[in-house]
Design a protein that fits this description.
6 helices; six-stranded mixed beta sheet; Purple Acid Phosphatase, chain A, domain 2; single chain; 22% helix; 32% strand; alpha/beta
Length: 250
Amino acid sequence: MTEIINPEDGFTCKLNAMSVEVHILSDIHVGAKKFHKKLLLSAVERIKRKRNARVILNGDLFDNTIPGGPYSARDQYEQRMEQQVIQARDLLFPIRKKILFARSGNHDSRTQKRAEFNSMIIFCDMMGIPYYDGPGFTRINVTGKTMVLAGGHGKSGSQNGNLELERYRRIYDADVYYLGHNHQLFANPVPGLYLGSDGKEHLKEQWLIRAGSFLRYADYAREGAYQPQRCGWPTIHLGPEGITCTVRST
């Protein structure tokens, strides 16, 4: 039975290690004609090699283009939904033990809205991983360090990807904020000050992340004159020196 994570409870990961890197794989769009399979395979290989790597699957794992829905033209996708689920399982199975959880995006949710069928929960059950039912907190603990993430798939298509992230900053108290959905890819530090237990002020950075995608410039984006985006994904590093974030892109 798939473990369902309630956002009110959050999710905690404890590692007996000095450091960890958390890869946020978002908007993979398995089944789309412009799905960048080669890039996803390179991400999987990198994660396999890293002993302390962990993964968050942040929604829109499947393209899930349904008849009568938005962008339902057959030339936008290559596989039926059940084939998309099977291919996603095959591609990600080698790193299944490193996946912290998966959540749904707007594409994954299309069948749920139409037929009360949650394809992501089926995928999680096949993989033996938890399903995070919405946006929320994730706490990562390593030896001597703790990091709090706040994130979700995202909903806004605004060209200014920081606006939705700033809304999350107003709601959640975290070190790192991440969202997907709009396919923008960046990881930006936001410096601030806090008062330490020693009575002195210290510098503290929070990070704002948009999690990119594995979908090349699709026909619907071209026809709508949407801004092209780099394919890639962000990685959050936690270790003795604190938190840093990087992006890998094509």
